[in-house]
Amino acid sequence: MTPKRPSDENVDAWLDEALGELGRTPVGAPSDDLMSRVLGDAMSEMPAPGGPAPLRSALRQILQGLGGWPALGGLAAAAATGFIVGLGALGTSADAMAWPFGYDALYQDQSGLDAFGWDFEEG
Amino acid sequence: MDMPLDMDAQTEDAVLLARFARGDASAARTLTLRLVPRAFAQAMRLLGDQAAAEDVAQEAMLRLWRVAPEWRDGEAKVTTWLYRVVANLCMDRLRKRPKAPAALDDVADPADPAPSAEAQLQTQARNDAVRRALADLPERQRLAVVLRHFEGASNPQIAEQLGISTEAVESLTARGKRALAKALKGQVAALGYEG
Questions:
Q1: In which domain, by residue range, is A73 found?
Q2: DSSP H helices in chain A
């Protein structure tokens, strides 16, 4: 017997039935051949043991680019040491403190290119 | 093929995928056991063709293996990602299929009191028509409809899978079904309805 065409009123129920029937279609288990093929693909695509772990965030990528937390710690310690050494050098060297105030211009005006600074420094 | 049972039943898919990306073969076996039956079942329902469904499941898993090293933990569930890939691969195939009616020879002889060959043909035609109409839906509408009717997922579950609100799921499902009804209305003859 040919079923009746779904009307506009019951089309929703008809669709539910059609989709439900499709969803209930027995599908069985995947074949052993498929499982073997998938596993074969996995083995051929698998990175070497110990390969890189998946990245989690942009910050982590940057951190890994720098060499990780130990490298970042070393970088911070080196920067702090350099800053302290720089401060100490400024405090103990009058010459070094003078350069930022234009002493270099005087040095070049009074000495020729070939003077090597000896005439100026030796008087 | 003999494979061990899922020894990592409590381990999340994303963790296993990360282990695979570091060269752990046992993680690949576990993921294969866990995900291939789901991918295959989904493809079978959408395509109704064993060989095509197996090809789709294999292709989807191949894409998963390839994306594993770049997988970002927390961005998406592995099952959701796979579900989308399988759905899209199936829809690509459905769109390319010729729209030939099912032939009587394609229907296996029924054993009594199973439905007649004519009834089976009609069911097959209806299923094919519904599959094609699904293929023409926008992706999110299609996923919402398929998750609801094929997987029996609730609105909150679909919302979680698609990363949208429950209200948006209701809207997507309603629009999807309206579009399906419109697409199928013109095919009453092919579907075997009278009147």
A1: 60-92
A2: 11-23, 32-45, 58-66, 68-92, 94-98, 103-110, 118-122
